[in-house]
## 1
Amino acid sequence: MITYRPFRNYDPPAIVEVWNDAFAGRGASLLRTPAVVERWIASRPFFDPSAFVLAFDGDRPVGFVLSGPGSNADASAEDRQIGVTCLLAVIVDYRRKGIGSELLLRSQNYLRRNGATTLLAGAMKPHNPYTFGIYGGSDSPGFLTSDQDAAPFLEYHGYQGAGTTLVFQRRIEGPLNIADARFGVLRRKYDLQIVPKSVLGSWWQEVQFGTMEPVEFRLDDKLTGQPMAAITVWEMEGYSWRWNTPAAGILDLYVDPEARRAGLGKFLVSQLLKYLQEQFFGIVEVQITERNQPAIALFRSVGFEPVDAGRTYKVDPRYLDPLDDDDE
């Protein structure tokens, strides 16, 4: 008989057991220690054990679902009117037995009872309370299409695609071969700075990144000292174990509007790749929304290739049953 209950403090080893069985694809971090659960999930200020439901067959853990709130408009606080089913896992031997459907229902009921009127599945910026650092790759892309069971399962339960993020990677073990006639002028005009990213922006970003220490690569104008372009990178340690090579993830790229269309973004990315290659990284990943065609063109021009895509989904309210006192 399958039983369900909320998270308890001694559950991380069980979560790791389910995780490494259920999430065996390219886009999930390989969890090597239960401490990862504390770092990336239980340490969140809005973490609620009732939002983390585990399924058991006797004493054997066979699945779980993790839910959380979305972000408000300026990323300064959570917004519980938006609820996100962030992760849903069932080990391979127990699939197609109704466990996933029951876990999803319990996630939906939890979110609705805590004020959610919009229900999403798949954590994607800005509504990504969990998954960064352990699922999805360099950022939070929603559920990956390489996890082939996700889309048909969610669509069966009334969810429709609500946003797509494309995942690009570049291998850098070999020659980089990035040439541009503008680079010579840019080298004379700008200084490359590599500094710790001590301020991450919004409260929501601070929560996502936790104890992670990203690095900023910045191009400063030699005459004015003003930063004109910047890119933020982090070491994807858990994914490095999965991909068998050190990996780095690009979080964002900014070019001052007055300096755009002059090759500055391409030059900065080329310098980043050169530095990471010298530090013996093997893969660099970036995620870009499908609507951002200029960024897609930029990263393709320096050798990045598509390897996956992620989607977030929104449920059609007609698929939701009325809540009653027994929906716990």
## 2
Amino acid sequence: MHENCIVVHAGAGYHSKHKETEYIQLCSDACLRAAAILTQDNSKFRSINAACEAVAFLEDNHLSNAGYGSNLTLDGSVECDAGVMCGSCLRFAAVGSLSCIKNPILVAGHLLSQQIMDPFSRLGRVFPSLLVGKGALDYAVNAAGFSRIQEVEMISPSSLASWKKYKNWIDHVDKDTCHSMSLHHVSSKKARFMTPLDTVGAVCVDSFGRVASAISSGGVAMKSPGRLGQACIYSAGSWAECSPEEDGKVTESVGVITSGTGEQLIRTQLAQKCAQRVINDTLPVPLAVEASLSTDFLNSRFLNGEPDQRFAGVAGCLWRSLPFVRKRRSSEACVEIFFGHTTQSMAVAYFVDNTMKIPKSFISRKPLGRRHLVGAFSHRLLSC
């Protein structure tokens, strides 16, 4: 067994410098919440539970665009998306356009655990991997036992104030174009503030190298009701994958979580493509991430005809066991934490249990003129 590893992000977009300390502390605390689960939970779902716990913690904070404080739709309602993936069995579960549930990610986590334990329901019906709207709410309350809350309880004072401000801007736009396209008719400065992309996510690797990824989002500000973002779409918002186990051991695993413009991330399937480059490429991890952002996103043919503004952020880790050397008398592993973004900034934190005393948490800011920014950290892990 090796040390546990956690990576979290609080979104790629624009993070106010006035709130930088708050974002840094929030991400650090989320890492510690996940670390506690990985240490105390002895179940086979511990990496899933830890990732969901970290994201649920982020959902509860008004700084994030997930759960409480989510961006509001054009009509002023709350609709959340969340998804979680298990790297060991490669199963994925998600909810979309969900309201009146405090922590959407926990519903997705419950859906995933049911899918793993009992992939077929009665009469052989396939267990769902994605539920949306009323179906997701009914499942959360009636099947999973979550409490239904009033929608107003999910609206923070700041999200309501932002909605009123954005609505006023849009109301001054030509009524014939006042739908989701309205963002293209406001000034670029206003558009920057109308599109906070602070989706939140977590990747957790347990002491056996088993990985899970989880992600949650309230979606883009002033979105059309019913719109789904990348958080609930397979291979677009998150990815987790382990090598087939040999003698009960994982030799390598990778987890990726994304943030950015949902429609662009869906069309490029960025989470899976980034993960595959990182785990399969002969390039060093930072160069593999850079290649993914450049080739799979910024220059992707699937975004032909899109505006020049292409927003994406990725974060995650690559875990690999190292060849056994008898003279060391212990097995070793290496974990490489990475992040990259095309947006102005990205909030990231990571923690390697027993190797670090406290999480490393920071706001990465892209210099002017750069198309993207990539960073990585490497840690060698001794067996516990």
## 3
Amino acid sequence: LSYPGLVCDKLYKVSVVETRDYFFTMSTAAHELGHNLGAEHDGEGNATA
């Protein structure tokens, strides 16, 4: 869970990742960090990646 583009927001600057698989945890954490930094999924909104 993360809030897109709110990494500097005092209330919503958080991501939560919970899983039992180490690789999946790291992959998901990186994915959610991207959302915190304002990135969207490919094909959504103004995403160009």
